[in-house]
Structures are given as structure tokens and as C-alpha cells.
Design goal:
The protein is α+β, with helices and mostly antiparallel strands. Helix content is 25%, strand content 19%. Helix 2 crosses helix 4 and helix 2 crosses helix 5.
Amino acid sequence: MKFVECIDEDFSGVVSVIQNGKNIYQKAFGYADLPNKVLNEIDTKFATASAGKVFVAVAILQLIEQNQLSFDSYIGDILQFDLKEIDPHITIRQLLNHTSGIPDYFDESIMDDYDELWKDYPNYKIRTSSDLIPLFINKSMMYNTGEKFQYNNTGFVVLGLIIEAITGLKFDTYIDENVFKPCGMLNTGYYELDRLPAKCANAYIYDKITKEFYTNIYSVDVKGTGAGGAFTTVIDIEKFWDNLIDCKLISKEMLSEMLTPQVDENCYGYGIWIDEKEDGIYSYHFEGCDPGVSFFTSYDRQEDLLITLVSNFGCNAWQGHKNIIKLLVK
């Protein structure tokens, strides 16, 4: 099997593979602008959906290292709005590892399509993390705090709000200044869909009835929040991994904690997924999926292997990743 055989024929996006510090495969496929036949390029910016949770996690870990909050800080002591039925004793740690039980505005265990959210609440209203509060604030807790692991989008929206409460900055401004810029990620940011900068790929959804593609501008938040929604390039993602693993964003001790399983299932640390290989050896990944968007990036320290796939047609980045692993890792 060759690299080209790892990728579906209809894949649209970018694939990048780096091993031992060398780029061994990098290729763009398909169109950033379908009607105008503008091609995707290696430095095209793509939406990444939930992948942005890892950036929020790093920002929170930085604030913990600066003693501006702690893993055991309660959300009720930080947030200034009425939590209603939400447990004020949820901790930062429980938000970071998805064990908080906080009501999820998009519960992926029962909802299939993200665009279901906007039937009664227009997506164009979502331009800050606080704009999502009405979607969860009147709901009851999903389970008792700390009871179990269940992936939760609201938890990271709240972490974004906590960044704002602690620093006095919008969460995306803080992340830009303390994560993106220090990494040299100059083509990464939280952009509004109606004000995208140059070289951003439109994301497309296929309409099975009309048999044509349409953009996802009415299907996702108009601007990303703590739960995700950053735009980036595969080049910038590689810069992020390099700086994270080299302890340039957080200390060696904090990185070790971030990459250590924090739940009984051994599948999640803080803002990052953990894949157990053998004999206590792990590889790491973060991912995202929205209507018209799919993103997957992984780093295997043992193999010194970094793989990133991103698609603006919601293509199967996960299967492509599996195929590349099968090709490279014996």
C-alpha cells in the first residue's frame, strides 16, 4: 500500500505525515471553493470543530501553573452568572476530563447532527462563548459530579468562560496571545463565518435529495467557542505539536499530567485523547467533526510519527489515519 492508496478517491482536504522530523508525505486534495474550482492547498485554513478543545486545555493548564486557579477550583467561585441547577462544586479538573456531569448543549450520545441545535436558536447568534449559555443553563445535571466519564461540549465552553473571568480577555484573544503566537501559528484563529480571512476553505455538506453540495454556514456556530471551532492549517498543527511536546507551552511536569489518563477508561487526559498501545505506552490525538468538517491529528512518541488529516467535505479522516498507521507502523 502506498500513501495515495490510504486516502479515499473523493477525499477533499489535506494530509500530512511527518516522521523523525521529516515530512514524508504532504498533499492537498479537492476544492476550497467548489463552485469556483479554487483548489485546496497545503496552507489552506480549515475548520477543525472539537479539535480546539486541546487549545483551551493548554490555556487552562497555563493559568494553573501561574497559580491563577487550581485543578480543584469550583466553577461557582469563578463564574458570575446564576448556575441554576448546575452544581457549583464542579471542579476545573472535572471539566478538563469530561467527568463534570454538567448539562451538555450538544449531547453526542443522543443527538446525531450538530445542525439540530439551530432549529429554534439561530446559529448566527453564536459569536462568543457566553452566547451558548441559553442552550444549557436551564437544563439539569446529566449525572452527579465526578460519577463517570462522558464527553461533554458544555464543559469546554465553561472553561472558555473561566479563561475570560480569570484573565479579563476574550478566550480566543488569550489563546491567540498565549498559545498560537508563541507557537508561530500565524494562520490559526477563531474566525467568524461571515468574515473569513483569505485562504479559508468553505465546508460542504451533501444534499441527498437535490444531489448537490451546500456550505455549512447555517449548520455550525458562526464563530468558535471553548468547545471548538478554530480554523488552522496542517503546518500550524505541526507547530503546535512541536511546541507542546518540547514543553514550550507548559512545563514538563504539567505536560506529563496532561498526557496521563485521567479517567478510568484510560482514553483521555486533559483536552486530549489517549490511545493505549502496549506495556503502558501511549500515543495521543485530538479530533473534530461538524457538518462538512472532519479533522484528526495524532502523535506517537515511540515512532516519532505525526499524522494530520483535515477535510472540508466531512470525509473519513479516521479511516485515512488508520490506513496510514497500517502502512507505516509494523
